[in-house]
Amino acid sequence: MNADEYIYMESEISASFTLTRFDSDPEEITTILGILPTKTWKIGDVIGKGILRRKQNGWILESQLEKTVDLESHIKDVLARLQPSWEKLVEICPQYYTEISGVIYCYDPKSPAIHFNNEIIKSAFELNTEIDVDYYFLYEYVYSGFHSDEVQHYIARCKGTALPCPYGCTLLGRETLYMESEISAAFTLTGFDSDPEEITKILEILPTETCRVGDVIGKSILRRKQNAWVLKSQLEKTANLENHIKDVLARLKPSWQKLVEICSKYDSEISCVIYSVEAQGEVISFDKEIIKSAFEFNAEIDVDYYCLHKSE
What we know:
By secondary structure, the protein is an alpha+beta fold. It has helices at 26-33, 71-82, 86-92, 118-126, 149-158, 196-203, 241-252, 256-263, 288-296; strands at residues 5-7, 12-20, 39-41, 58-62, 97-106, 114-116, 130-137, 140-142, 182-190, 209-211, 228-232, 267-276, 284-286, 300-307. The protein has a six-stranded mixed β-sheet. The chain has a six-stranded mixed β-sheet with strand order 6-14-12-9-11-10. A two-stranded antiparallel ribbon has the order 1-8.
């Protein structure tokens, strides 16, 4: 096998809608909705091939798409199959616990897209449900000794430390020299023609950054194609994603009604970035409070997930 190779397999993605914490037989849920579930379980049922037993009744409908399809399409498939009984679901969901769940088994260094558009956010809000994504990073990297003796000596000496690497050895697929994941979140407003300062004056909130059409992007030669107003979380990078988002929302709260009005005219997004060093990824969960806020802002939610493989 050549230097810097990894064993490639396509990522496997799935999604489902789950209804639990009801006392009746799951068959009654099926009768009410007129939709055949993928599976059901009752209190006391054995979980899989183990010895643990179910502590509550459950009703679940899973996506029927191929595992190679993106997460957003899987969720839309589930929602489309629930559509014939939407009004009944809207009525019963607040009485029980509901969740739109996604599972990603990633075998590729390039992580699959995790995006929830306005349609998905609106549906989750109407069903009074949370959104949860379980992410597992499983690609196998083969370290071949490709690096020079000098670099390999540096890796051996500094592995597991926070020392900066002058050789670029923290790139994906090589030794990572730091051990903690880094997480951040931001609220971004785009699609407006006025100067970003006008948005600041209206909201009376100081943004983390603003961008104007024509601004250079970072250190590249590319230029901004639209104006932007951004408010980022102020929490430590080690805080979980949900807390980062809630920190941003709390700081927007004083101008909530003005923001709702502005967002109805322009494009808004709750943007999340995760740099993870764990094979079983960071928790990606959006509770009802976050879903409600995104719905009110007509905002999409986007998660950029980067797995930085940590050699054992």
